[in-house]
What does this fold into?
Amino acid sequence: MFDRGTSDDASTHLSVLARAEPGRIKAMAEQVLPALGAVEVLISRTGLVMLPLRDTVKGVDFFLGEVLVAEAHIRAGGAEGYGMVTGRDLEQAMAMAVLDAARSLRLPGVPEFVRQEAAAQAASDDARLRRIEATRVEMETF
Amino acid sequence: MAYVATRGGERAIEQAERLYREQLGTIDAARVQGLRDALPWLIDRVMGEASLYDADLAALALAQAGGDLYEAVLLLRAWRTTQPRIAIAAPVLQEDLFTHRRISAAFKDIPGGQILGPTLDYAHRLLATDVLGGADFVPVPVTPAPQAAPAQQPSLAAWQKAMGLVADPPRAEVATDDIPDVTREPLLFPAARAHSLQSLARADTGGVLALGYAAMRGYGNAHPTVNELRLAEAEVMVRHPSGVSFSAGRVKVSQAEVTSKGKSGQLELGFCATFGWNEVKVIAGATLDLNAGGAEKGSAVEEEFVLYHTEPVESSGFCIHFKLPHYVTFQSALDAMRGAAVADPAKEEVPA
It folds into this structure.
């Protein structure tokens, strides 16, 4: 994960949740929801995140454009939960927020879910990168 | 320019729109999904020009517009105005990109090596006509390497700067809230570099290619060689309310640097990047960036000329507005011609 100066478990955990397979994270959220009790929804919306990119020639940051995201912010069981995912799936963002709150409340099952999703994501990246590596040019000089 | 209010077109207008939509037929989720899956390079181009990253919406816009790119981009640019701006992500740095393709035409042995990634650069372009006869085209699977490629590749420009081959100007740190934004501020000239690069990122691919190609053929000041071309995915780094930074997901980006020998004895570089994977646009855009310095006013590579004429919604909109009624303007031109004919009867009569 590419985090800037806040490299810790929380950052990795949130990044894994945001990239979790939508069907699985929604199912997991349904599982933990009863343990959270009443849920107050503070935010559930789609919106835009401006994405800057740094020019490699003069080091100038400029906007590449806007990324559509779904965002959810909830309060439950005395904890807050937050989710933001690329795309427009409000349920996916809400599921992330539910699992974020569940993690704050140390509910069982969430760390294991995150470990499994992290492993699936690492395997997916590894498969992709081995295909990419197959296209490396072994330059011969003569 | 003048306009005249007219009546009598309501029914024709309504039926014309119905005729357009009737010919496209029913648009359902399966059609949108099919477009998204089958045409990723087109989806990327539309997302880049719309400056809005969402493949589902881009596919929907293409479905509604029947593949008319300018209509699709207009639909997306209009839709984005309905959405709140929630946050500004952390700037994407080249060395953090999850890199799928990274090549240099200028240097053979670049740090990190040359990785072709997904490309038809060295393929024969043969139309698979058998598909039309019922024989599926089934691609040959990739043979994965035993070891994975590094997800991140080093920056060639950073290496060149360290070697003294390229100037390394001190950079001014700008807070993300203060990054200039052409969607909120007018594009003035000379443009801030952030405005120029943002405009190129949103620019019409065909327009950038036309002007970039003109520069490459000799209507510019510098001939490009691709220093580095990269197709990658960038993490969208946002903040949790607790302050922790995390990735909300990945988006595809392309970036290119082109180079030419500068007058200072060092290499000069031009840069362009965009949403999605669109090599033509970033190579042509970087060529225009390389040529912009010292370009003659009104030339094909001068900044104002380039940026005003490659904005897809403005340029296509201005072009097609000429088909709308201009009866008063045109009548006035005819009146002037008739007046001239009366003043000089030797000239041919202008028909009514």
Notes: The two ends of chain B are 21 Å apart (CA to CA). The mean pLDDT of chain B is 93. Chain B has three domains: 11-80, 94-117+148-170+179-315, 324-352. The longest helix of chain B spans residues 327-343.
